[in-house]
Amino acid sequence: MADDLQEELDKKRFALVRYGLLWILATIGLVLSSLIFIKIEGRSILFSVLAYYLR
Q: How far is Cα 44 from Cα 38, in angstroms, rounded to an integer?
């Protein structure tokens, strides 16, 4: 029984590693899209930051 439990835990750890990059990319995409939709004085935050650093 302990071996079955350990094997199941190993599968779950493998899934975390395997799909971890996808979760990170999805999170980054969600944050960037949120920064596009949030606007200050009619201009999105992301575009304001890009304009500041590319100036």
A: 6
